[in-house]
Amino acid sequence: MAVLTIRLYGDPVLRSKAAEVQEFDDELRALVRDMRETMTAYRGVGLAANQVGVLRRVLVVDVALDDDHRAQHTLVNPVVKDRSGSEISEEGCLSIPGIYEDVSRALHVDVSARDESGQPVELNIDGFLARAIQHEIDHLDGVLFIDRLSPLKRQFLKRSLEALARGELPDDYQPPVLPGGAS
Description:
alpha+beta; Peptide Deformylase; two-stranded antiparallel ribbon; 7 strands; globular
């Protein structure tokens, strides 16, 4: 397993649409393991494959549901079949560190996908888990959460985004926690 490098705002791979997965093989399972390790190291709750430079329709999420339960999913070729309600809540992104903004998303979604072994997955979810999965599916389509902001809000963030695109990380950026505790 390996911690992969998260691609940051300005990297063209983040604006590329990921290709559908055809082969459910050891290579795919290794990618999923590396993505999970990377998500954990960067302290994220979700990660799409193009965030690590791989243009395949694969995402992982690990969301706390309460103090004792977590929702951990691998979704390959995910499709939102239905959505309802809406909710505005703050979002951030591992590929856009230091920027957090309120985004409107569906409150409830039905998602069809496959797991890393090719088995069908059907999710009927709401709340933060639904938000996280919608955010990651957007990534697979080359859409970033900042694209869902008003033009005025994006203009307000322009300098910060330009700095990220030049490779300048925010002062409060936390590097990944690598296995063994090293950063």
